[in-house]
Amino acid sequence: QVQLVESGGGLVQPGGSLRLSCVASGFTFRFYAMGWYRQAPGKQRELVAHITPGGTTNYPDSVKGRFTISRDNAKNTVYLQMNSLKPEDTAVYYCNAGGLANGYWGQGTQVAVAS
Hints:
- By secondary structure, the chain is mainly beta.
- The protein contains no helices and eleven strands.
- The protein is globular and about 40 Å long.
- The mean pLDDT is about 95.
């Protein structure tokens, strides 16, 4: 069965960095677009990074230049490198395979940016 297992969240100071990982199983990873989403209390879920099977990436303006998504098909893993973190980046971050509506989701990992 499909499974997405996330790791790497935690507490970090403003300006710091974290790298999130998502290990996938149960489907042909290399054929799927992958994404990272986040949701903070009182806010809508939002896409923060997207990568196609061919490696094309997209980011919203809120994270562009600070976050980088990458994938390692040999490891069935997608990463999110987060640099220059801000308090407003605080949220639960979710790994997604195959899209918002019909895709698969990880369990989420908490990222907190605070002094």
